[in-house]
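Protocol step 6 of 9: fold each sequence in the batch and record its structure tokens directly after the sequence line. For illustration, a two-sequence batch is reproduced in full.

Sequence one:
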Amino acid sequence: MLKNAVASLAGFLVLMALFGCEEKQEGLGRYGMLDEQTPEYTTVAFLHSVYEDDNLDVAISLSSEKLKRILKRYHTNRNVQRHLLSLKYDDVVITPQSGARVGRTEFAETASITVFLSGTYDGDKIEDLRSVELIKENGEWKVSEIHPDKYL
């Protein structure tokens, strides 16, 4: 009886160890809790791809047709940072500012998200804002335009 209990416990621990090793996908936004169906999630995922990924594949998939063509012409993440966003970072924290918006986005066809970017480039701390315009295509949010903050 004791042997069966020890064998069952050992089997359970092996299974837990195997399932515990599964890599979890890191969430986006503050505390990693942005809902994937929101324009904020699309905005953060797009910018995360431009600043953190090795290529532009995710950013291209989250872009409108017009922006896709533009991104493909720049070829690299650094070129997009330099020419499209006019803002380069070595490391960056991306925070969507959506506090002033009230209501649900599930019925909206367009959205404008202000994003606070904070990070470093060549040892200098850089903080800036960008306004990201999104449209809904086939039920999914797509980035259509990026503007510098009009108040700075």
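Sequence two, same batch, same settings:
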Amino acid sequence: MSEEYGSDFITVKDDEGNEFELEHLDTIEYEGQEYMVFLPADMDEDDEDYGLIILKVTEEDGAEILATVDNEEEQQKVYEYYMTVLFDESEGEDESE
């Protein structure tokens, strides 16, 4: 994701109608499925309950929608894959400095 234009923010609504603003960090593909990685926009770094939010990109009635990853094993595998990609990119940036 290009940092040239700043951060991307979206507002999502949960099943109960509550709205949340999320900062889009990255979009990744894992095992043929597309996922988007977010942080809560109102994240307090001291709050240990906050963390990455990974949503699956799915299609419904011809439109792309974001869905929660309900399978805990799938969620963990995507998280671990993202961390690997993130740290591989970070190491490459350090070497070029």
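Proceed to step 7 once all outputs are recorded. Observation for sequence two: DSSP finds one helix and five strands in the chain.
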